[in-house]
Amino acid sequence: MELILLNAGSRSDLLSPEGSVVTIGVYDGVHLGHRHTLGRVVDAAQRSGRTPVVATFDRHPAEVVRPQSTPKMLTDLTQRLELFKSLGIQAVGVIPFNDETATEAPEEFIDSVLVRQLDAREVIVGEDFHFGKGRRGNVALLEAEGRRHGFEVTGVSLDAVQGEVVSSTRIRALVAAGDVLSAARFLGRVHELRGPISHGDGRGGPELGVPTANMHVEASMAVPAVGIYAGWYRDDEIGAHPAAISVGRRPTFYESAEPLIEAHLIGFEGDLYGRTARISFLERLRDEAHFDDLDALIAQMRRDIAVASDKCAEAADQAPGAEQGS
Q1: Class of the domain covering 180-318
Q2: Which residues are catalytic?
Q3: What pTM, to 2 d.p., does this model score?
Q4: Structural domain spans, the chain
């Protein structure tokens, strides 16, 4: 898959001579609804000999237009690019979103990005898609401009899972509530966060006998609710490894602290410091709790590890990498 930085102003030489089939959007989460639209793009491109392209943004537009209410992100740009590639997208146009982009008329966007840079011959978007200054751009405007510039437009209806519309907003709410099982049902995979592994306060191994990998996550990302989870840890050196994961403030030791993400790799011995890790959340096991003494805490942690091990074994087909090439 190739990256196209959409600020050059001229046709990309990465495209087929037949032009491209393009979809536009943030595509945060690349969830099942997104996958339906992306599948339409890939199928249309294969039929016509064109390049399937996603035009996306380097950040969520809300960061610029309404920073006080920017939603937490389900995926960072790197994750989105990996998922696009796994679904058959051959090129991604990354649009720097800034104050200038936010005030751009939709007609300007169509002319500059879709026509001149991406040579779009077909545009496929969600039927509720809006873009451009004041969100004035929509499917109807794309259709009108398509007649003028010579590209076709298809508006795709929103998908539903068991009667519920699939949306990034809905999935963010589920993650924030700790319902990662339901979030996975809409995502089509387990929710994953990424970040570097750093030193914690050193209690896990020496004091509790349960060493953990402490992962730093950017504040912009959607972190599950405080609690104990079953899931997987992975990095570039080891595959998906079953883990008992804590998202919490460690109330047994501290009165108040920012939530930390800590993963105990079940049955693993080794040094993980300095690695960039991926931690995936399969299922929430329980709330975080305060324990009166270390023995009670250690006993509960052992129970959590046993349950997490069983959950991961039962859901081995959902382990990251098992169902997609990310």
Answers
A1: mainly beta
A2: 262
A3: 0.89
A4: 2-161, 180-318
